[in-house]
Amino acid sequence: MPLPKRTLIHMALVANKIDEEIATVLKPFDISIQQFNVLRILRGQNGKPANLSTINERMVTKMSNTTRLVDKLISKDFVNRTVCLKNRRKVEIVITEGGLNMLNKIDGILFEAEKRILKNFAEAELHELNELLNKF
Amino acid sequence: MPLPKRTLIHMALVANKIDEEIATVLKPFDISIQQFNVLRILRGQNGKPANLSTINERMVTKMSNTTRLVDKLISKDFVNRTVCLKNRRKVEIVITEGGLNMLNKIDGILFEAEKRILKNFAEAELHELNELLNKF
DNA sequence: CAATTACATTTGTATATACAATTATTGTAT
DNA sequence: ATACAATAATTGTATATACAAATGTAATTG
């Protein structure tokens, strides 16, 4: 198989493997990777509310699904959503105490998983990999 | 953000971008990436039928979904499925002429897309990237 | 200022996937 | 041979995603 095709398939296989491992880590907490990503983004706001489009820009999924991710997080009491007073088209989403607690519980376990997934990499190699990924 | 976490997120973003680009290329042919992968595997058999589990081993999806991928391909007349005579638990799947024609039509366009996606990579860098991916 | 356009989000729908349970067949041990 | 376990594939169901269309609000323009 030609090198470019082989490389792209390789990428897909590895990314999928990583995804599966992380999903497995999150499963006991009954939270999907994408839901987790939303929570992380909201935590990064340090209390400042985020619009749906802001969250969406920082993720890989489509707007419509981001709405539904937030729906799920609301039903679990991990975030709150209110209409923006300044601009009633927008919506303001903030993480709750419960959401922050959940993230704190996950942090350590995820950190271990990340170390495990990358156990064969020296730090220099991680830098190298990031450089190569920048070329995409 | 710590290097390991950053690297894994980077991997996910890039893999997703690649996926989207390839899906876009396949879309006019009304075929998903996974359906396409099944067809490629079957072409690689050179006429020899493949069991469902054989196909599945070479893919990233679950058995149950491989069944449904084959269902879709049958409805498009791209593959045939027959019960294996030697072992009636097994199933034999072969690609049809129509399936082969579809693959031939896609080959060139996909090749161009692959070149485009990897346009910033020198050959040595592709080797490097593959070496790094092997560490996962 | 009424009509049109742009913006932000949501809803509808078809397809895709994960996971568990089920069916059908074959292999094995007593 | 009968019962039990193992194998191969399928079906049911809940969740996830993509894409298009719809809703509600704000900005612009003639």
Structural write-up:
- The structure is a homodimer of 136-residue chains.
- Helix content of chain A is 64%, strand content 7%.
- In chain A, helix 1 (3-26) packs across helix 5 (97-117) and helix 2 crosses helix 4 (63-75).
- The mean pLDDT of chain A is 96.
- The relative contact order of chain A is 0.12.
- Chain A contains 6 helices and 2 strands; from the N terminus they run ααααββαα.
- Chain A starts with a helix and ends with a helix.
- Chain A is mainly alpha-helical and 136 residues long.
- In chain A, a hairpin with a 7-residue loop joins strand 1 (79-83) and strand 2 (91-95).
- A two-stranded antiparallel sheet of chain A has the order 1-2.
- Chain A binds chain B through residues 3-8, 10-19, 22, 60, 111, 114-115, 117-118, 120-121, 123, 125-130, 132-133, 135-136, and chain B through 3-8, 10-19, 22, 60, 111, 114-115, 117-118, 120-121, 123, 125-130, 132-133, 135-136.
- Chain A binds a DNA duplex (30 and 30 nucleotides) through helix 4.
- Strand order within the widest sheet of chain A? 1-2
| Gyration radius from CA atoms of chain A, angstroms | 18 Å
Structural class of chain A: mainly alpha
Oligomer: homodimer
Percentage of residues in helical conformation of chain A: 55-70%
Range of strand content of chain A:
5-15%
Largest interface: chains, residues each: A-B, 36 and 36 residues
